[in-house]
Amino acid sequence: MRQTNENTSVKLKLVMLFDWRKQIYCICSHNLTPEDASQQVTELRRDGLPAFTVDQRSRHLHDDAEECAACRADVQQCVNPTPALERRKLEFRR
Question: Residue 94 CB: number of other CB atoms within 10 A?
Answer without folding.
Answer: 5
